[in-house]
Amino acid sequence: MGPIGVFDSGYGGLTILDGIRQLMPQMDYVYLGDNARTPYGTRSFDIVYEFTLQAVKKLFEMGCPLVILGCNTASAKALRTIQQTYLPDNAPDRRVLGVIRPTAEVVGQLSNTMHIGVLATEGTIRSESYKLEIEKLYPGSTIVGQACPMWVPLVENNEFDKPGADYFVNDSLNKLLAKDPKIDTIILGCTHYPLLLDKIKKYCPSGITLVPQGKYIAKSLEDYFVRHPEMEARISKNGTCQYFTTESSTKFAESASIFLREQVMAERITL
Ligand code: DGL
What is the pTM of this model? Predict the structure, then answer.
């Protein structure tokens, strides 16, 4: 038995961890942020795969039977190859899940027009993962994406609630909506974006449903455990959560405390 591993390139996956822990507080968790090498959003496919695989291996070494890639960029660029190429030969009894498919699944229940907007990192938008996933699930839907290159730096630098963030939030939203005025649902396809939610709401026209991911990923994981009781049985349940980072543990603890609204202690590791 072991904890659920949650991985992100930095702090963003904490919004996913938060959602999952609220729904399943009895489980044990290990969070790993590759803060030393964040952001992943502008990196190539090969590099995101290499870094993500290193993190997954580390979480397996720590005893996690199940790892969630709580990062859209890693889910878009590394998940499929890890599932199809790495796991069968190297860790057939472990599982790695991502955040794109569960998010794509919910939009069908939220949108009336089936014109869906996706705000995400450049890497996620370029991968077209959301477009492909949603079109597969809901043929005939229209998916329009907009990369928001400034949003992750605003969050990572603790500027997300400052006046300077308004310009970039408004700008990216306008660019998205100009591409398709029929959009009625917008996926916040990057785990950092829930921290900008107040500003996004401020500039988003009324009538548009915003989809931050945390609670949907949590619900989807709960459903996964119902379908896979053998995996649920392998998750230890003492209600603990440990935090690891590839950057300074003090720096991580300070910022993570903002994301989670509680004090956390972190340990630095190398991948
Ligand atoms: N957390 C990542 C995501 O969800 C974005 C941050 C990064 O670019 O590394 O896509």
Answer: 0.90
CA of 120 to the centre of ligand 1 (A): 8
71: annotated active-site residue: yes
4-21 in b/e burial notation, b at 16+ Cβ within 10 A?
bbbbbbbbbbbbbbbbbb
Measured in Å, residue 53 CA sits from the centre of ligand 1 at 16
Class of domain 100-212: alpha beta
Strand pairing class (66-69; 241-245)? unpaired
Residue with tokens 């090969």, as numbered in its chain: 46
Residue closest via CA to ligand 1's atom 6 equals: 39
Q: Is the dihedral of CA 175, 181, 186, 187 positive or negative?
A: negative
Q: Find out if CATH 3.40.50.1860 is the number for domain 4-98+215-268.
A: yes
pLDDT in tens, 254-268: 888 877 878 899 999
pLDDT digits (tens, 9 = 90+) for 124-172: 899 899 999 999 999 999 999 999 999 998 988 888 999 999 999 999 9
